[in-house]
Amino acid sequence: MAVDKKTQLKEFNFAWEGKDRTGKTIKGEMRAPGDALVRTNLRRQGINVIKVKKQSTSRGKRITEKDITFFTRQMAVMMKSGVPLLQAFDIVAKGHSNPSVTKLLLEIKNDVETGSSLTQAFRKHPLQFDQLFCNLVQAGEQAGILDSLLDRLATYKEKILAIKGKIKSALFYPAAIIVAAVIIISVIMIFVIPAFKDLFSGFGADLPGPTQLVITLSEIFVSYWWAIFGIAGGTIYGLLELKKRSKPFQHWIDRTALKLPLFGEIMRKATIARWTRTMSTMFAAGVPLVEALDSVGGASGNVVYVEATKKIQTEVSTGTSLTVAMQNSEVFPSMVMQMVAIGEESGALDSMLSKIADFFEQEVDEAVDALTSLMEPMIMMVLGPIIGGIIIAMYLPIFKMGSAIGG
User: Fold this and answer.
1) pLDDT at position 10, please?
2) How many CB atoms lie within 10 A of CB 222?
3) Residue 94: inside a domain
4) CA separation (Å) from 195 to 189, 215, 395, 406?
5) Of 282 and 3, which is predicted with more confidence?
6) Which domain range does residue 114 map to?
């Protein structure tokens, strides 16, 4: 029990300065429960300690997938260049602008220094290093080709990050236009329409129907704008929270996303690209097929393909070929089936899966470019009549008065 309590002690980062056996001043960082343990560890290494200072516990920015991708690429480059593992960690950690990443990497480095394997050190941080990442690193350590596996892993993460960026860019443009339109319409309703209302009150005549409708909507908006924005914001927040907490709702969202006009096909192609890219990377690293499928489903990012992958895994584990199992799942197009069949027959499944991923990534690029070009006129066709209709409705009384004077 005493050992368990010791392992649960809270640790902190300490910056230290000292002199080595040659009298050279050196600095570094160490993670430990207290400064006394830091001094003891340094003395064991033959370092004459000058000072030890507990570092600030500021959390820094959130660690993003881009941070992990950049770290993986840096580690791959340095290890291929012959830089020792611990030194590479030290260089990457101290050179990073995000304190959270620096802290994470120093923790991993300290774990490796105290005897843990790199895979074990990564598995302590599942939020940053998922099962796929850890499995590939483990395969690299066991085969003695960690530098090659890190390079392959970095390439994989860069491609996945790129395709996610494409999807976000496809969604960002219409979202930005809609937000801008809401702001413009809100300003018109709250500030512009009331000014016209005051102007029309001196006309002494009935206002045209469209004008009266716009003024009524403006009065409602001015009186209850807080409720309108509150309900809209609350609804969006509620849906996001529901998606996080409710699996049935999350499943419904993922299924619906694949059926959306325009966006659905892009989502499906992106999901297949991620699925085949992940499968190719795992298989090429020597991870057994059934074990690789554990990570593939989650990496696809869509519950439809997660469930299909579980079904494929069950069938493959009982002796069914991957091609037949994928065909039975009914979520992959025939072109994918044919290329996977060729890959299985020729013994080059990883290469064929990589080519499928390349093809669908290119398809996503082209589809996003086409969608962006198509969305601009479509949005203008919707927003133009709304904003134009409001403006025309407010000028109708002026046109009517002008025609009456002219008559």
Assistant:
1) 65
2) 14
3) yes
4) 10, 10, 12, 25
5) 282
6) 65-158
Structural domain ending residue among the three candidates 130, 158, 186: 158
- Cβ–Cβ under 8 Å, residues 253 and 320: no
In a domain, 152, yes or no: yes
- Pair (322, 342) in one structural domain: yes
15 and 81, same domain (yes or no)? no
Residue that is last in its domain, among 158, 183, 216: 158
Percent of all residues in the chain with a pLDDT value above 90, rounded to a whole number: 4
Which residues is 222 bridged to in the sheet?
none
Instruction: Read off the DSSP letter of residue 27.
Output: E
- Which pair of tokens denotes residue 264? 């659905």
Tens digit of pLDDT for each residue in 140-184?
Answer: 888 788 888 888 888 888 888 888 888 787 777 777 878 888 888
Taking Cα atoms as reference points, which of 139, 106, 78 lies closest to residue 131? 139
Q: CA–CA separation, 263 vs 166, rounded Å?
A: 12
Element counts in the chain: helices (H) and strands (E): 17, 3
DSSP one-letter code for 347: T
The pLDDT score that the predictor gives to residue 355 is 92
| Structural domain count, the chain | 3
d(CA 117, CA 350): 27
CATH code of the domain containing 333:
1.20.81.30
| Cα–Cα distance for residue pair 224/182, rounded to 1 Å | 16
CA angle at residue 296 from 292 to 301, to 5 degrees? Answer: 165
Tell me the three state secondary structure of residue 258: coil
